[in-house]
Amino acid sequence: MQDTQINLIRNYRRWFIIIGIALIILGIIGIVAPVVSSLAFEIIFGCALLLGGIITTVGSFFSGAWKRFILMFISGVLNLVVGFLLLKNPLQGVLALTLLLAIFLLADGIFKIITSFQLKGHNNWIWMLISGIISLVLSILIFAEYPQSGTFIIGLYLGFYLFFSGFSIFMLANLPSDQKTE
């Protein structure tokens, strides 16, 4: 499995570097302007839910089977309602999304730590481990300080998350060509 992952990194090195740099830049923006980034994320997410809700609700009428129609229709309406609520009250939306971010960072941290141990032996595997630990710490800090810091924490933490994720991807892409796998 490790050989496959390392070969994937080698074969798509340029893309890993581009993605890493893009994530680093987005991370810096989030760190420098956290309140604006929080609100921007919330509005984009609300719009995405509205669009997804429209597409799913309309698509439900073309689904064919009655059971499929009901499930798709309910899913579409749910997307529409949540998207509308996020856009109607962005501050409450940011607070709700802050809790979702904490849960996401918790899961992401666990998965990155597991992945880092699968990459152990690769020269730069430690950066994936560090990224996972940072995700876990950020999650714990959100849970500990909620809701006082909810207005800016999404933008700030998302900025740090994107920065360190980009950095870890960038470092993995800089695998020496003679790197041996164990």
Describe the 3D structure.
- With 182 residues, the chain is mostly helical.
- It is built from seven helices and no strands.
- It has helices spanning 2-11, 13-32, 34-60, 66-88, 90-118, 125-145, 150-173.
- Helix 3 (34-60) crosses helix 7 (150-173) and helix 5 (90-118) runs antiparallel to helix 6 (125-145).
- The mean pLDDT is 89.
Which secondary structure elements does this structure contain, and how are they paired or packed?
Elements: H1 2-11, H2 13-32, H3 34-60, H4 66-88, H5 90-118, H6 125-145, H7 150-173
Helix pairs in contact: 2-3, 2-7, 3-4, 3-5, 3-7, 4-5, 5-6, 5-7, 6-7
Can you summarize the main beta sheet?
none
Shape: globular
Order of helices and strands: HHHHHHH
Radius of gyration: 20 Å
Q: Mean pLDDT, rounded to whole units?
A: 89
Number of strands: 0
Give the helix/strand class: mainly alpha
Name the beta content range: under 5%
Distance between the termini: 11 Å
Helix percent reads: over 70%
Q: What keyword list fits this structure?
A:
182 residues; mainly alpha
Quick overview:
By secondary structure, the chain is mainly alpha-helical. It contains seven helices and no strands.
